[in-house]
Amino acid sequence: MHAAPLDPLHATATELRVLVGRLRRRLREEARTGDLSLSQFAVLGHLGRDGPATVSDLARAEGMRPQSMSAVVASLQATGLVHGTPDPGDGRRTLLALTEAARVRVRASRAAREDWLLQVLRERFSREEQALLAHGLELLQRIADA
Amino acid sequence: MHAAPLDPLHATATELRVLVGRLRRRLREEARTGDLSLSQFAVLGHLGRDGPATVSDLARAEGMRPQSMSAVVASLQATGLVHGTPDPGDGRRTLLALTEAARVRVRASRAAREDWLLQVLRERFSREEQALLAHGLELLQRIADA
DNA sequence: CTGATCTCAGGGCAACTGAGATAT
DNA sequence: CATATCTCAGTTCCCCTGAGATCA
Fold it and tell me: If you count DSSP H runs as helices and E runs as strands, how many of each does chain B have, helices first?
């Protein structure tokens, strides 16, 4: 009755927009994982996976301004999860890396299986769905990079 | 070298968290669609698809507090895209609906093909990928609802 | 001097909490 | 009275812009 003839692609676009907002709220609500924001979480993941990086590197990788990333990094330094050392070869740069405390924490939270999202993926998705989801995320990456 | 033995499910969880943040920034950056926020967009979509609803209905549907939704609705009323009429049967409730201006605008923006996200989906994804993506979004819905 | 990196200051906005007001 | 809906006020968080300072 409220009409939405709507080609399927348009429906997909609308659904995606709504979904991003809802997932953001849901993930924040179910924080845990040490009460990290999405941005903080992303930085720890990046440093853990790809090794030390500068604020600018991280900002580029996450698609945000260096000033914004700087604040995220500062909060992680304040809680002792990240530490920075001046680049010996280039005085402008500060190389950021995970502290031992961060590595310990990541391992502990994995062992404790305390991550809400991980639980959901494990319990509510079949093997095939998990694989499908992983593939879907790759496609979404492409949108974020577009 | 920076070690992440990492079962694939954990990788998926991390990737999803990062992705939500990146998509949010990307979508905001590429606003257009009439400069609506994700929440505003979601409300217009809901009202257009499911018909009139109250603030509380909308809040439940989007997973946010009524007070927050109230602000979103107020902004849409201020720009004349939504109007509210008191529920004749229950004086506490206000039924919200799209204005004719909103319907016109949605149709116009569809016709103009001016939506950034729609362009990306159309131009950078094959038919199969589009279908795969749509299916992936359903799985993500399940997470948001969990 | 130009350009890259980083910091400081200030602002906007989306969401939250808490405290009512009003109607059932 | 108890409950549901909605509003008002204040706060927090994330990210932005703009203006330097420092170093290559």
Answer: 7, 2
